[in-house]
Amino acid sequence: MKHNIYLYILIITVVTYLIRVLPLTLIRREIHNRFIRSFLYYVPYVTLAVMTFPAMLYATDSLWSGLGALLVGVAVAWFSGNLFLVASSACAVVFVLELFL
Amino acid sequence: MRTGIPVSLGYLAVSFTLGITAKQAGLTALQAACTSLLVNASAGEYAAFSLIAAQASYLEIAIMELVANARYLLMSCALSQKLDVGVGLGHRMVMGFTVTDELFGLSILEPDKLNPMFYFGMMACVMPGWAGGTFLGVLMGSVLPASVVSALSVGLYGMFLAVIVPQSRKSRTILIVVLLSMAASLGFDLLPCMAQISSGTKTIILTVAIAAGAAILAPVAPSPDWEEGLDEA
């Protein structure tokens, strides 16, 4: 069955909006439950790590350029942490490597 | 407004690569721009486009969005502490539309209570950049040579690395959590019995399991400085 693209967009809009707006409107005091706070604290790192690796290796035309981008991206992020520097250097590595591959 | 402009320019570049993903998922430029305007989430939109490309079920995409954007829940919790009790429901509801990693970071950097007007100013700067970049990404993705598209497709992953790597450097616990997540993710892809599971479901299962495990084994200190660790998240 083919899914409706507008229904997809509607669903992600509503879900994302509720996630953001409910805490802002409902919570007027701090969360004290240590487990919930710790869980929420780790969530972004796990999610992003799982989504990045190994998917980054398959994103480009060649496995090797993806690996190069991963290594350079990690190195640049480790030493600078600048979001756009990391993203653009990863792109540059792929572009240069694929000229030779 | 002034704080928002550099962020907007960065958004333009990142959302451009997002547009390329949207195009691969079969969205038109207008549909992709609408999504960006309505959703305003990099990882969340990326995950959604991947699932749309895979024709995932509506339930799967809703749960994925919940998990991919769960961090906004935490950010909104933190932002709610930054607002004056007197800030009305209407203002809070508009702000809730655009809680993003970068705006959250900028808001937390404000020394005093957060003025909703300051927040609206930032929103006005970044939202056109984000939606416009996505729009251009879909349009230009087909014009640009394949080598450039291939190169830009790692841009988003680069952005994710820029969030997780510096934090891994600061905190050994996060480093272990990140390495474990990546290893588990690779394991899921390689094990034949797990190959049936879609990438969205994989992300959900691993996120809940590993984050819960980490929360039990290494709970974060119940001090207010937990917000600092999230500045760049």
What is the topology?
The complex is a heterodimer of chains A (101) and B (233).
Chain A: H1 5-26, H2 34-52, H3 55-59, H4 63-79, H5 83-100
Helix pairs in contact in A: 4-5
Chain B: H1 4-24, H2 29-39, H3 42-53, H4 58-68, H5 70-82, H6 89-95, H7 101-109, H8 116-141, H9 146-152, H10 155-170, H11 172-190, H12 199-217
Give the mean pLDDT of chain A.
Answer: 81
Q: Please give the radius of gyration of chain B in angstroms.
A: 18 Å
Shape verdict of chain A? extended
* Cα end-to-end separation of chain B: 22 Å
| Termini Cα gap of chain A | 39 Å
pLDDT below 50 for ≥5 consecutive residues: which ranges of chain A? none
Strand content of chain B: under 5%
Q: What is the ordering of alpha helices and beta strands of chain A?
A: HHHHH
- Number of extended strands of chain A: 0
Low-pLDDT parts of chain B are 223-233
Helix content of chain B: over 70%
Structure description:
The complex is a heterodimer of chains A (101) and B (233). Chain A has 101 residues and is mainly alpha-helical. In chain A, 80% of the residues lie in helices and 0% in strands. The model of chain A has no long low-confidence stretch (mean pLDDT 81). Chain B is an all-alpha fold. Helix content of chain B is 73%, strand content 0%. Chain B has helices spanning 4-24, 29-39, 42-53, 58-68, 70-82, 89-95, 101-109, 116-141, 146-152, 155-170, 172-190, 199-217. In chain B, helix 1 (4-24) crosses helix 2 and helix 6 runs parallel beside helix 8. The chains are: A mainly alpha (101), B mainly alpha (233). Chains A and B meet through helix 1, helix 2, helix 3, helix 4 and helix 5 of A and helix 1, helix 2, helix 3, helix 4 and helix 5 of B.
